[in-house]
PI3K/PI4K catalytic domain-containing protein (Lotharella oceanica), 266 residues
Amino acid sequence: MAPMLVTFKVKGGGTIKFIFKVGDDLRKDQMVMCIIDLVDNLYKRLGLDLCLTPYQILAVAPDEGLVGFVENSYTLSQVRDQAKKAQDALYSFLQRHNTKGPILDMAIESFVRSCAGYCVITYVLGAGDRHLDNLLITTKGRLFHIDFGYLFGADPKPLAPSIRVVSEMFEVMEASRQRNAFATNVCWAFNRLRSESRHILNLVGLMKDMLPAEDSNCLAYITKKLDLKLSDAQADRLILERIEASANAILAEIFEYFHKVATARR
């Protein structure tokens, strides 16, 4: 059964939209959204809003559930398809939807911050299957990820990068002179997550029994990724090296091409 968009009327006026999915186990997604919501609030409490997008997920059975619909969002695959030149696809998208200077600046800042936040979160959780239909962006510049069926290092593709970044992201940062801000935000986010690791580890510990048996190593995996014995400076180098390696991963673009071909034939 294909996913179905369902609109609910809210008491007092307004509506809320969900995607009803059958055939997908959403328990991992539900746990990840709880983690992202926790991390979002943690970062804000520590003084920086990284413009994360925690949306609601309710797994009502092992193979069906409801996924919150994020309005005015597009997959990065769609953004690429709409662009005249692939290399500036994201920057053109942001310019098209944010025509005034100050509004465009705000959208770019949201993009850079959210990019940093999700690089760290998906790295720590070992999120796999990060093709461009699973990376989305809103018209206000907030990047976010969906579909967390593969976690803790699992991935349907061999030799997948540990963090999914594409050249178009860096084009936005270079054009707006935000590359250093991105690196600063990444390092801050990673080290704050490390220093406050008990929160995420406690949450995962409470929820791990809902996961399938193959994910029983989740706590050990996250602890290893956080690498708590490193100093902040060492952790900075580690996460930036991971991003640099992922940015230069040719295989990721090859797999993206095959994913696009396979999707077009369905």
Notes: Residues 71-264 form a domain with the Phosphatidylinositol 3-kinase Catalytic Subunit; Chain A, Domain 5 fold (CATH 1.10.1070.11). The first strand starts at residue 4 and ends at 9. The mean pLDDT is 92. The CA atoms of residues 37 and 54 lie 5 Å apart.
